Amino acid sequence: MTENRKRPVAVFDIDNTLADTAHRQRFLERAPRDWDAFFSAARLDPPLAEGIALAVASAAECEIVYLTGRPERCRRDTLDWLAAHGLPEGRVHMRRDSDRRPARRTKLEILRRLAERRAIQVLVDDDELVCDDAERAGFTVVRARWADRSATLEQAQEGEGRT
What is the CATH number of the domain that holds 119? Predict the structure, then answer.
């Protein structure tokens, strides 16, 4: 077993945990919602200092894994964004492009799968429903409350399964 395999895992959400999505909320406030523009603008997200610092600090003792509700078609932009902002390397788990299940279901499913192979030290996420379900399942959670809340984004996460 490699040294990396022995380390616990710290799991980080991206949107509104590491990346500030406020500038692209406008694409969700219109009817119909412009999901293509919303996700295309993600590459321009400013970093959230609190989340970035926590991820970098966590990398000292944990393997970092990113767990996002972003669709798979955003992988390249997401990887480029993580690298550009000095985030630790780590596997990135993304939603299949056609998956519209609520984030709390998709994320908990992946967390449980990860936990079968590795100790999960912490999940860091801004979605209260994801955090609630993860805590009920026995995971340690840090609630990322350093970004402005968005009712539109919360509805998209839960009701539309888009992020």
Answer: 3.40.50.1000
Q: Which amino acid is at 129?
A: L
- What is the residue-level pLDDT of the chain in tens, covering all 163 positions? 444 568 999 999 999 999 999 999 999 988 898 999 999 999 999 999 999 999 999 999 999 999 998 999 999 999 999 999 999 999 999 999 888 888 889 999 999 999 999 999 999 999 999 999 999 999 999 999 999 877 776 676 565 555 5
Q: Does an H or E element contain 30, and which?
A: none
Domain residues for the domain of 38 are 3-160
Torsion of CA 145, 46, 95, 29, to 10 degrees: 80
Q: Which residues of 103-120 are buried (b: 16+ CB within 10 A; e: fewer)?
A: bbebbbebbeebeeebeb
Paired tokens of 60: 């000292």
- CA pair distance 19, 33, nearest whole angstrom: 20
Cis before 32? omega within 30: yes
- How would DSSP label each residue in 51-83? HHHHHHHHTTTSEEEEEEEEEGGGHHHHHHHHH
What's the rounded Cα separation, in Å, for the pair 65 and 70?
Answer: 14
- How many domains does the chain fold into? 1
